[in-house]
Amino acid sequence: MATGDTHEVYAIRFATRTDRSSRETFLTNTTNFFEETGGEPVQEPIDYYYWVIRNADRTLVVDTGFSPEEARRRNEMWRGTYNPQFFLDPPDALGLLGIDPRAVTDVIVTHLHFDHVGFLNAFPAARFHIQRKEVAHVTGPAMLHDFLKSAYSAADIATFIDLLFAGRVVFHDGDAVLAPGVSLHPLPGHTPGLQGVAVETARGRVLLAGDATHYYANFTNNAPFPIVASVVDTLDSFDRIRRLASSPAHVIPGHDPQVAQRYRSVSDSHPGVVLALHEPEG
Q: Cβ contacts of residue 51 below 8 Å, gap of 6+?
């Protein structure tokens, strides 16, 4: 296991959804994709991840995923258009790395959208690290707009507020060093308070960009994902993503199925679920 300032980093791919179109990936046609396909949309899956950072000194979890029950609720709300396939309940997937969620002491919350914070209560010993602007956003007048609030779950936000009142939320206001070799960085746009996590590994600095870029193609082509609070902030965050990672190959997007194709699966029992991001692509 890594020691000192370097870490192992894992993506946990707990679900996928294939019933979506490539037109749902870009806010505008700012890539050559539609020219290449004759202007017609094609099927484009989306994967759901959360992440683990660990070495001999610490284990950190980044986001917590969401439940099949929440997926069913949204499928009803969205009239049968939302049907992700789950491989494992997100907390159970930690067992593939020998991690007990009850023993985790620190969880980083990239942002509070439903697919990232559905299992906060699965970590009873943890503190939750979040940007101040994200909490202000989800508890303020922006939530009067259906477009902005639709990706949040009121039940999840209530759970988060309970944790806040229990003294288990740590607020960050900008860049912060969480531990040697692990730092937090605001990457607003998708939401005002979204943060990424930079991690020193044996292969260089890996950036868990979260939903600052859902797919590799979003940041490489400067083409924002359609669910966005600020297009200007998103484009500025694309520039910052490039500066924070050792190279574009060290950027880990929040939902791209290519992550499962580029990185080694470490579980024989559940292939394609736990992926080693600290190793070179290939």
A: 9, 10, 11, 12, 61, 62, 63, 197, 208, 252, 277
Q: What are phi and psi of 235, to 5 degrees?
A: -65, -40
Host H or E run for residue 171 = strand 169-172
User: Which helix (H) or strand (E) covers residue 179, if one does?
Assistant: strand 176-179
Type and span of the H or E element at 10: strand 8-17
Residue 86, H or E segment: strand 85-86
Amino acid occupying residue 180: P
pLDDT in tens, 233-278: 999 999 999 999 999 999 999 999 999 999 999 999 999 999 999 9
Contacts of residue 67, defined as CB under 8 A and 6 or more positions apart, other chains included, come to: 89, 90, 118, 119
Q: What are phi and psi of 205, to 5 degrees?
A: -85, 115
**What is the pTM for the complete model shown?**
0.95
- Using alpha carbons only, what angle is made at residue 106 by residues 7 and 209, rounded to the nearest 5 degrees? 60
**Start-end of H helices in 17-153:** 33-36, 68-77, 90-93, 132-138, 146-149
Pairing of strands 106-108, 59-62: parallel
Q: Name the DSSP letter for residue 266.
A: -
Beta carbons within 10 angstroms of residue 110's beta carbon: 30
Sign of the torsion formed by the C-alpha atoms of 164, 167, 168 and 173: positive
Q: pLDDT tens-digit profile of 91-120?
A: 999 999 999 999 999 999 999 999 999 999
Q: How far apart are CA 14 and CA 55, in angstroms?
A: 22
